[in-house]
Design goal:
Chain lengths: ~210, ~210
């Protein structure tokens, strides 16, 4: 019996590729590629920095990944453009299935567990209109997902045993990290991607957030 | 004064994309894309498994990444084809600058420090004709690069202080991980890529292995 649901934020509730329109406006014809590359590097940097034991807040990692991506693609970006694009990360769009699903979830304890540093995630959640019992950031631990201590943070802060926590992510590696830790996991596979091969199986694979509800 | 040179293997001495021809023969028109995706997933899995504390040998990770990549690209792969492609990883081509550079390096202590598990790296080095004073695998530690304990392995096994070790890699994040640990690092930037933004600077950026020599 699950007493709490813990959600990943970026890519799960919030569409990280909603920055694409802004990128496209600044660099016509390159927005989609930049958005994809930026996200890929952002995640790589979280894993590499965690392993190097050189944590930096997600806001820093996100900026670094943007600058690298622009350089790789040969796109010039000045200080003002950089700020314009980074500001988009504080007002990412919710996926269309999020609001209807969250309305039905009122009975369960609901939290966010995110790589996002407080300076990024707090304004984002505030402007979304969504309400959570807790918004937990890896920043408290200075290591990124999928390190097991990150998932332990939800156990500690929600004071709920891991056996009673359902974890919801669209990032397959994040869902599998949570499974390896001991949560019951739901992978929101909106894109119809294959399951990552990391030695664990997901508990439930769904196409949208509504399907995780009883 | 550097008393030992430590080389990364995959992507630095051995061209991981020499599997491309075999992939192309099996799946015409898809070889380059498969080779790129396979390498990307292979590295992602090393980082994710390390953070999850679910190490698996590089041979396993490499197979998992191949199967994921085929599935994502909609390519059917049977057991024999899988083995054919994986066998290529045990006879990857050397980059053309490697043999001339290694001949000039006879005076220094030379070692390999690799993510590769012994079942992969030992046959690969044997068939290359190259000679090293040591071939060190992360498999002894059950964690992948860029964890600092991996670089410490070279210090311990070569009995050489880190201040006297030069580390050579074409993988920028690996060179930066080695820099974060304390080695003098050379990044072989054959592709003319931008420097990764991980909070450290490289000691020397060169286009080919010859340029690291005195």
């Amino acid at each position: 019996m699950l007493r709490a649901l813990v959600f990943d934020a970026y890519g799960t509730l919030f569409d990280v590729h909603s920055v694409q329109a802004r990128c496209e406006a600044l660099w016509p014809g390159r927005g989609a590629q930049l958005s994809q590359l930026w996200r890929t590097k952002q995640l790589e940097y979280t894993w590499q920095r965690s392993l190097m034991r050189r944590y930096a807040p997600f806001s820093q990692v996100t900026e670094d990944a943007l600058l690298f991506s622009c350089e790789l693609m040969g796109l010039r970006i000045d200080k003002k453009e950089k700020q314009t694009v980074l500001d988009e990360y504080r007002r990412l769009a919710l996926y269309p299935d999020v609001v209807p699903a969250m309305k039905k979830l009122k009975s369960a304890k609901c939290a966010i567990l995110t790589n996002g540093s407080p300076d990024m995630i707090e304004p984002l959640v505030a402007q979304s209109g969504l309400k959570f019992d807790a918004v937990l950031s890896v920043d408290a631990l200075r290591v990124f997902k999928p390190a097991p201590e990150v998932y332990q943070l939800a156990v500690d802060r929600l004071q709920t045993p891991k056996e009673e926590i359902g974890f919801v992510s669209s990032n397959c590696w994040d869902a599998l990290g949570a499974k390896s830790f001991g949560f019951t996991v739901y992978w929101i596979n909106r894109a119809g991607a294959p399951v990552d091969r990391l030695g664990f199986a997901l508990d439930k694979i769904v196409k949208s957030l509504d399907e995780i509800l009883p």
